[in-house]
Amino acid sequence: GVRLGLVFAGLYELQVRAIAEAMADRIELGGNPKVEIMIPLVGSHMELKLTRLSAERVIKEVEKDRRVELPIEIGTMIELPRAALTANRIGLVADFFSFGTNDLTQTTWGFSRDDVEAEFFSRYLELGVFTISPFETIDQFGVGELIRLAVERGREANPNIHLGVCGEHGGDPESIHFFNSVGLDYVSCSPYRVPIARLESGRAALAAI
User: Fold this and answer.
1) Superfamily grouping for domain 79-209
2) pLDDT the model gives residue 26
């Protein structure tokens, strides 16, 4: 995640330069690419701020060398509870948030998707602690509340911020309706889930009218 990029100087710079050069190549060929750089596992606004400053320096160097403007947006994954709780600070240095709901579920509950397949989770289903895996349908009262809070705080800090979700929840009908209700702009998911995601996104939008 972001920690690796900050500890090992030059690692992210190489990747950003490759992205910027590829974008410049495409523009020279007449294209109009939309490029976003998403920094993973951010828990502090300073992590994103430092990474962003480094990335912007590299982008400006490529712009100067190639004599082209590269409007690259830089944002982050919200996959840690602390990131959600401090979204008002992170939002000041982000162009977008993408909620990584698989990891946010894991870091909030303290167990992984693999653990769900273990014996304890079957027992929890029998006991009624869960009625469905939180990795299939978003936990609206826990993880969902973190998302709701982050949306409110992120938009308060940056009214122009783009907000979305990535992960298998983006293809789950019930989760899609929840994401729409809290004000997310888009969902993304595995290719085979796209038809369901498109259908349910349309239904959610109509229901909100």
Assistant:
1) Phosphoenolpyruvate-binding domains (3.20.20.60)
2) 98
